[in-house]
Amino acid sequence: MNEQISQAVIRRLPRYYRYLGDLLMQGTERISSNELSVKMNSTASQIRQDLNNFGGFGQQGYGYNVKFLHDEIGKILGLDKVHNMIIVGAGNLAKAIVRYDKFERLGFPTLAMFDVNPELFGKTINGIKVYSLDELESFVKENRVDIAALTLPKQNAYDAANKLVGLGVKSIWNFAHVDLEFEDEDVVVENVHLSDSLMQLSYNITSRK
Amino acid sequence: MNEQISQAVIRRLPRYYRYLGDLLMQGTERISSNELSVKMNSTASQIRQDLNNFGGFGQQGYGYNVKFLHDEIGKILGLDKVHNMIIVGAGNLAKAIVRYDKFERLGFPTLAMFDVNPELFGKTINGIKVYSLDELESFVKENRVDIAALTLPKQNAYDAANKLVGLGVKSIWNFAHVDLEFEDEDVVVENVHLSDSLMQLSYNITSRK
Question: In 3D, which of A169, A132, A124 has the Cα closest to residue A147?
Fold first, then answer.
């Protein structure tokens, strides 16, 4: 089914998943494209078009079955599986990630953190232990690690990423301020640039005035 | 000039700004669209098309003047001005933001943090003081505050945002896990959803296999 869905729709899926999750929590069993469009500040026709990609479970006069749609989108996003995560760089951003329970609830539990600062070795944050970066190799060999989050300075990011890829951890959630790119097509990277988002805000401020 | 630039180009500007900034730091004075396209993993024609929006300073056989282009894009993004920022919610994400010097260097100094936890009142992080949320109003009246970053739980985000908008702080950098939207068209919001980015990574992992 994945093959047929456009990238533009894929990029909107996490947002649908979030809104449908909120509806589920509120006990909503079904919703029309019109009601959903109001909540999502979108149009009913956009929503119908997007959700048509997931087969015929939107029915005239009934609307969408919230739970079914939520679960189907979850499967497309791979959220029906658990993705074990480690965090390289045990600074404030790493702490914010391990303290935020939602990532674990979504299926992304953090197994461990790694740092180069000896003062942090052995400490735990929200029950997650900080290891020396020297222990990365043995940890990855002994545990199934699916994703590595990089929350370290730009200048160390490629070294850490190359090491991880060499150890077989080919999914990188990168917060370092550099676009990581790899020749190995198996490596998937999601670059998060907080400063880009701040610049976008600044642009909108400037063009408003 | 802004009016003529498409939203798609605008969204790419922060990335150009970052790459040109790196080139400046390395002492590069000029660069061809071909060289830049290799660095940015883009195409020379895309780059020429995008940068044509900024007038005729790419010259055949010369390339682009890095400093000029960097400064022009900075102006479009509003980075030639200082945007004073406060952070509401003094948790780990707030600490990560105030400890990251680059935001200040880009022109977004943090003036203060606010929280509801009395244990934090009066503490400073990287020289930035944490105030009681009760002091928000007087602080905003006595200081020019351009942007409020919200790093607080979802259920408190709208209350805080409405209070800020009422006080005239109409630019919100929102990390709470809800899409903030306002009827007031003067309000600009940049929503950062880290879980959406993690889901996007998960989708790419799932579709790779």
Answer: A169
Give tens-digit pLDDT for A143-192: 999 999 999 998 999 999 999 999 999 999 999 988 898 988 899 999 99
**Tell me, what's the ipTM?**
0.91
Go through the domains of chain A in sequence order and give each one's CATH number: 2-76 (1.10.10.10), 85-197 (3.40.50.720)
Chain A neighbors of B208, CB-CB under 8 A = 186, 188
Closest CA to A97 of A142, A157, A147, A155: A147
Q: Report the residue from A96, A173, A207 with minimal CB separation from B2.
A: A207
The verdict on a CB contact (< 8 Å) between B41 and A171 is no
- Classified as helix, coil or strand, B67 is helix
The structure's pTM equals 0.89
d(CA A156, CA A151): 10
Q: Give the helix/strand (H/E) hosting A102.
A: helix A101-105
Output the DSSP codes for A185-208.
TT-EEEE--HHHHHHHHHHHHHHH
Whether A197 and B190 lie within 8 Å, measured CB to CB: yes
pLDDT tens digits for A79-136?
999 999 999 999 999 999 998 888 999 999 999 999 999 999 999 999 999 999 999 9
A27-42: pLDDT as tens digits: 999 999 899 999 998 8
Residues whose CB falls within 8 Å of the CB of residue B122, separated by 6 or more in sequence, listed in order: B129, B130
Indicate the DSSP class of residue A152: S
Say whether A177 and B18 touch across the interface (CB within 8 A). Answer: yes
Task: Output the six-digit token pair for B197.
Answer: 């980015």
CA distance to partner chain B, nearest, from residue A81 (Å): 9
Which residues fall within 8 angstroms of residue B77, CB to CB, at 6 or more apart? Answer: A199, A202, A203, A206, B13, B14, B17
Which residues from chain A sit within 8 angstroms of residue B11, using beta carbons? Answer: 200
How remote is the C-alpha of A11 from its chain's centroid?
Answer: 12
